[in-house]
């Protein structure tokens, strides 16, 4: 999806006056245009209450008419970005909408695109290593949250005021719910020079492995100053990618050449993984793993097993951020979606659900979707519901249930009369904004 950069260039100088009349939702004072693309414009803005600089991407809804693919990309970008809180990923603060426009309020990244810095000349191996380490840290986090970037290139990598990396533009990303029964993704996407050979083969691909390939191309560009696979004829370039035909320049160290050969391995089965990258002698020089939770507290990654809600998720429970409302679509009937907040562990909630299933004596089919999520089907197929549990705090969880198919009366009977009362063995807690 072609769109404006989510950061733009350095903030306007202090002498640039922002019009007091140009205030969005009585909250953001709009500034100068930072960039524009085919479907969006990005502006610098200031939070009038805090003075914080933000970037606001503005999408005109009229451009979405009869473009289902673009609309799907925008919905996916919202869905993906609201889950991600990492030092090297651009933050999405909130999404707002009017009848005519959608507004993404995002972190303002002052340094602009990595591509602009690269235009001044190739990087040293040490600098290339630094950016790859930050990129791998961000990707490892995204993959652990079920998100695959799929369109990595220097144009989508930004730099903050400290010279640190920020991954942006998640419109072409994929999530685990897009994986087919064969365990692979199948959508053909990505920028030609950075695309993995298995995508060209059109037989399905592993999202994590194609991200690793793109990292290899990015690293090559940063340290060589040119693309590893390039040809004026697109089909010739694709043939080079498919065969893995590239040459490292003479100034590269033997360790870097070896490392690149492992990343740019045309066989995804033998290609180096992110975990292996972190242990590689060339890569690990000076590398420190960042471990944190969504509130910023440092944690051991192996202890973080359950999906937590970040602040955006909590806000998103309010109807004002329902994606169907953003796109002027009909809202799902209120009785088809329900949420409750209880002071209980996620494991205990799931045990309660399984207790109801057992009590039905074969009248219900249960299928686990993830560690704290299940799908329930009536024995005769007259309804299907999905139930997920999210950790809100150390003591509180949010239980969300949706009717996926079938009779709403059967859904209501099962949820409201059987499952809900078992979960609510103590008074329900009210979630602000829901």
UniProtKB/TrEMBL annotation:
Q: Could you read off the lineage of the organism from its UniProt record?
A: Eukaryota, Viridiplantae, Streptophyta, Embryophyta, Tracheophyta
Superkingdom of origin organism: Eukaryota
Name this polypeptide is given = non-specific serine/threonine protein kinase
Q: How would you classify this enzyme at the top EC level? A: transferase
Alphabetized CDD domains for the sequence = CIPK_C
GO terms of molecular function: ATP binding; protein serine kinase activity; protein serine/threonine kinase activity
Q: Which SMART domains match?
A: S_TKc (SM00220)
Q: Which residue ranges does UniProt annotate as crossing the membrane?
A: none
The EC number of this protein is 2.7.11.1
Which metal ions or organic cofactors does this protein require, according to UniProt? Mn(2+)
The segment(s) forming the Protein kinase domain are 28-283
The answer on whether this UniProt entry bears the keyword Nucleotide-binding reads yes
| Keyword terms | ATP-binding, Kinase, Manganese, Nucleotide-binding, Serine/threonine-protein kinase, Transferase
Q: Which reaction does it catalyse?
A: L-seryl-[protein] + ATP = O-phospho-L-seryl-[protein] + ADP + H(+); L-threonyl-[protein] + ATP = O-phospho-L-threonyl-[protein] + ADP + H(+)
Pfam (any one)? NAF
Its family remark reads:
Belongs to the protein kinase superfamily. CAMK Ser/Thr protein kinase family. SNF1 subfamily.
One BP term from GO: signal transduction
Locate the residues binding ATP: 57
Please state every residue range assigned to the domain named NAF. 304-328
């Amino acid at each position: 999806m072609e769109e404006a950069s989510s950061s733009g260039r350095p903030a306007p100088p202090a002498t640039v006056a922002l019009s007091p009349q140009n205030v969005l939702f009585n909250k953001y004072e709009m500034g100068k245009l930072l960039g524009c693309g085919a479907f969006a414009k990005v502006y610098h803005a200031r939070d009038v209450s805090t003075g914080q600089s933000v970037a606001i991407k503005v999408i005109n809804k009229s451009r979405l008419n009869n473009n289902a693919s673009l609309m799907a990309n925008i919905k996916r970008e919202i869905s993906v970005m609201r889950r991600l809180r990492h030092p090297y990923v651009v933050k999405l603060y909130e999404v707002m909408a009017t009848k005519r426009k959608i507004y993404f309020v995002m972190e303002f990244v002052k340094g602009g695109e990595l591509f602009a810095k690269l235009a001044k000349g190739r990087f040293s191996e040490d600098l290339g290593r630094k950016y790859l380490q930050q990129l791998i840290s961000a990707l490892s986090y995204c993959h652990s949250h079920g998100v695959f970037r799929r369109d990595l290139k220097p144009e989508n990598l930004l730099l903050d005021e400290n010279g640190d990396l920020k991954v942006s533009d998640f419109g072409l990303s994929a999530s685990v719910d897009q994986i087919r029964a064969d365990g692979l993704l199948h959508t053909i996407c990505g920028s030609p020079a950075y695309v993995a050979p298995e995508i060209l083969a059109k037989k399905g691909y592993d999202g994590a492995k194609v991200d690793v390939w793109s990292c290899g191309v990015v690293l090559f560009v940063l340290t060589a100053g040119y693309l590893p696979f390039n040809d004026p004829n697109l089909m010739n370039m694709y043939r080079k990618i498919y065969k893995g035909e590239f040459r490292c320049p003479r100034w590269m160290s033997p360790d870097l050449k070896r490392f690149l050969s492992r990343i740019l391995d045309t066989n995804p089965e033998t290609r180096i993984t992110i975990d292996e990258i972190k242990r590689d002698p060339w890569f690990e020089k000076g590398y420190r793993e960042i471990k944190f939770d969504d509130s910023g507290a440092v944690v051991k990654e192996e202890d973080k097993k359950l999906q937590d809600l970040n602040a955006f998720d909590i806000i998103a429970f309010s109807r004002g951020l329902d994606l169907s409302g953003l796109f002027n679509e009909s809202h799902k009937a209120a009785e088809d979606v329900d949420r409750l907040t209880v002071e209980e562990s996620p494991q205990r909630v799931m045990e309660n659900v399984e207790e109801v299933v057992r009590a039905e004596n074969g009248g219900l089919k249960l299928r686990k979707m993830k560690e704290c999520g299940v799908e329930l089907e009536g024995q005769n197929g007259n309804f299907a519901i999905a139930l997920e549990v999210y950790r809100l705090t150390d003591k509180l969880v949010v239980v969300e249930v949706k009717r996926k198919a079938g009779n709403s009366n059967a859904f209501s009977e099962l949820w409201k009369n059987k499952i809900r009362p078992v979960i609510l063995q103590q008074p329900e807690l009210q979630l602000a904004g829901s």
